[in-house]
Each structure stands twice: as structure tokens, then as C-alpha cells.
Design goal:
The complex is a heterodimer of chains A (about 50) and B (about 325).
Chain A (H helix, E strand, L loop, with lengths): L10 H39 L1
Chain B lengths: L24 H5 L4 H6 L3 H17 L6 H25 L1 H4 L17 H23 L1 H22 L6 H10 L1 H10 L4 H24 L1 H7 L4 H25 L1 H4 L5 H22 L14 H27 L1
Helix pairs in contact in B: 3-4, 3-9, 3-15, 4-6, 4-7, 4-9, 6-7, 7-8, 7-9, 8-10, 9-10, 10-12, 10-15, 12-14, 14-15
The chains are: A mainly alpha (about 50), B mainly alpha (about 325).
């Protein structure tokens, strides 16, 4: 028995898929960079307070 | 962390992807749009929660470093968003049958329910941990209590069981000023409890104004909102009663000497405006069952005014404290 192949996405769907992947990746990178910056700033402030 | 003003947010992110008109994108493509993850956080609710939290932080006595203050507000915002995501996960069945919520990411099939739950839990735990590590234990504890109250007491227990859901559940949305205050002082005092009480008593007339004109949606979903269970007439009566309690309560910070005339006069003028709106709701043209013959125009106006009212009232308190 051959496994059933999922239907190939159309050109529009493939473009939409790429757009969403890029959007999610950029959002995750943005959040991670922002968090790293925030934690760095918190550390500096806490060190100054002590 | 409450549903405050969520009810204008009818469609999640409010626009459709090129595919959403004919397929559920999650099933079709397996990758969700970043805007749907943002919509899960109920950004409009966040606005009011963040604002009241900031006011609690601004009016509290003492000093807080701007970076720590920003972190505290961010934690409040993220926790509110987490509550929104968990709420959308739990309410996905009723969201699917209500007109204003059926295009939210989960019922529309754009995000899987389990993913939304995991997202909400992760953000909630993360917000509490960061609040504890960066700010202080008191703020983190109140934040954790508010999340628990919203998720377990309001969303899972009260919302579908009692017409008083909004009254008790309103407490969840009243926590942010207390959290903001605790972030500065490390404790909970009388004044933040008064601010808590103001938001708590403001919530029922705010929500019931909405519920009067969204009655059909709630009935279809089987949510026992007051107009569904007790009728429009009783709801109008309750709106008036809570509003009569609210206006004198807003004068308490002035009476206690915590604020000056800027806030006192503002609270009085805004309160009179609120009562005028509510009076129009009570005297709206209606049939024998109390159903509006004006398409609930006064209730819609009262709902809009109630949001503006809380914003301006709290802003007046902050201005009074900062320049008074």
C-alpha cells in the first residue's frame, strides 16, 4: 500500500505559508531580543541598587 | 484580569487572511499567523488593565526605578494576555456560537485549542516569575491571585453558572491597581483596596450595559448573563443600583485625604455624567418585558461612556497626585 500524499499547496497557499513562517520567526526573534535586553537592564538596575 | 471591554473585540484580530474565507488555515497550512497569537491575548482588554495598573504604580508613595516599573507593567500586561488566551481556550465552544466571537482564532480554526492553552499557561507562569524576581514578592503574589481568580473562579466556575458572574468575576479586573501599588511599596494598603473597590463596583453596570444589547448572543451560548436570566427590566434596575454605589465610592480617595480637589471635582463631574447615562438606560423606551424599543441606544452609549469614565477617573487621580 502506498501512503497517500497530502495535496500539494497551490502557489498562493505556498506564498501565504512562507509569509506566515517569516512573520512568526521575526516575532519570536523580536521577543527573544527584547527579553534579553530587558533582563540585562534589570540585572544592571538590581546591581546598582545593591 | 478581566474581560473588561472585550466585548467590542468581536473578531479576534478582525481581518481575514487570503485563505480564511474558504479553508481553516491551521488545517490547510499548519502554520498560524502571528496576528492570531496576538489576538489570543485580547489586546483591547490589556489596554484598560495596563492603564489601571500603571495608575496604581504612579499614585503609590515611594520610588521605583523606571526599568523595574516598566517590568511590572509588562508583567501585568502579559498576565492579562495569558488570561485572555486561557479564557479563549476554555470558552471556545460558546465563542463558536456567538456572533461577535466566532471569528476568534480558535473557533475559526486558525489556532489549535491545546496550543492556545499552552501559550496562556506559559505566559502566566512567566509573568509571575519575572514579577517576583525583578519587582517583589507582594506584587507577584497579587498577580498570581488575580490570574487564578480570573481563570478558575470567573472563567471556569462562575461565568456559566450564575447571573452574578460579572459581579464576582469583576474582582479579577480590579486587581491591576493593587498590583501596581504593591510593585512600588511591597505591600497592600487601604488606598489600593479603594481603587480595587471602584473597578469592582464599576464592572457590573459596564458589563450589563453591554449585555442588554448583546442579549441574543448570550442566550444562544447559554451564558446566564443577568438580562438572559432576570430580564432587561431587572438588569436596568441593577445597573442603576450599582451606579448609585459607584459614584460616592469614587469620592473616597478625596474624603480620605489621599487626593486633592482635581480628583475630587473630576470624580464628581464624571460620576454625574455616569448617572445621567444610566438614567437614560433606565428610562429607555421599552415594551412590557423591558426590551428596548430604541435598539438599546442608551445602553450602548452607557457602555462607551463607562470605558471613558474609568480612564478619565484614574487619569485624574494620577494627575492630582503628581501635580497636586
Amino acid at each position: 500500500m502506498m501512503p497517500e500524499n497530502p495535496p500539494r499547496p497551490t502557489e498562493t497557499e505556498a506564498a501565504e505559508l512562507r509569509r506566515r513562517r517569516r512573520g512568526l520567526n521575526l516575532a519570536i526573534i523580536g521577543v527573544l531580543v527584547a527579553l534579553a535586553g530587558l533582563f540585562y537592564a534589570i540585572t544592571i538596575v538590581k546591581m546598582m541598587q545593591h | 484580569m478581566s474581560d473588561l471591554s472585550t466585548h467590542t473585540n468581536d473578531t479576534g484580530r478582525g481581518e481575514k487572511s487570503p485563505l480564511s474565507s474558504h479553508v481553516a488555515p491551521t488545517e490547510a497550512l499548519g502554520v498560524t499567523d502571528v496576528r492570531d497569537w496576538i489576538a489570543l491575548l485580547k489586546p483591547r482588554v490589556m489596554t484598560l488593565v495596563v492603564f489601571t495598573g500603571m495608575i496604581g504604580l504612579l499614585v503609590a508613595p515611594g520610588h521605583i526605578h523606571p526599568v523595574i516599573a516598566f517590568t511590572a507593567v509588562l508583567c501585568i500586561a502579559v498576565a492579562a494576555g495569558a488570561c485572555g488566551a486561557i479564557n479563549m481556550w476554555y470558552d471556545r465552544d460558546i465563542d463558536a456560537v456567538m456572533r461577535r466571537t466566532r471569528n476568534r482564532p480558535i473557533p475559526a480554526g486558525r489556532i489549535e485549542a491545546g496550543g492556545a492553552l499552552g501559550y496562556g499557561i506559559t505566559l502566566a507562569i512567566g509573568a509571575v516569575i519575572v514579577m517576583e524576581v525583578a519587582v517583589n514578592f507582594a506584587a507577584a503574589a497579587v498577580l498570581a491571585i488575580s490570574i487564578g481568580f480570573y481563570v478558575f473562579i470567573y472563567t471556569m466556575w462562575l461565568k456559566r453558572r450564575t447571573p452574578q458572574n460579572i459581579v464576582i468575576g469583576g474582582a479579577a479586573g480590579a486587581f491591576p491597581p493593587v498590583i501596581g501599588w504593591a510593585a512600588v511599596t511591597g505591600s497592600v494598603d487601604l488606598i489600593p483596596l479603594v481603587l480595587f473597590a471602584i473597578v469592582f463596583i464599576w464592572t457590573p453596570p459596564h458589563f450589563w450595559s453591554l449585555a442588554l444589547w448583546a442579549n441574543d448572543d448570550y442566550r444562544r451560548a447559554g451564558v446566564p448573563m443577568l438580562p438572559v436570566v432576570a430580564g432587561a427590566k431587572e438588569t436596568r434596575k441593577q445597573i442603576v443600583l450599582y451606579s448609585l454605589l459607584l459614584v460616592p465610592l469614587t469620592l473616597v480617595p478625596w474624603y480620605l485625604g489621599f487626593s486633592g480637589p482635581i480628583y475630587g471635582v473630576s470624580a464628581l463631574v464624571l460620576g454625574l455624567g455616569f448617572l445621567a447615562c444610566v438614567a437614560r438606560v433606565a428610562t429607555d423606551k421599552q415594551d412590557a418585558a423591558g426590551v428596548s424599543l430604541t435598539n438599546d441606544a442608551p445602553a450602548r452609549a452607557a457602555f462607551k461612556y463607562s470605558i471613558l469614565y474609568l480612564f478619565v477617573l484614574f487619569a485624574a487621580l494620577a494627575v492630582d497626585r503628581l501635580i497636586g
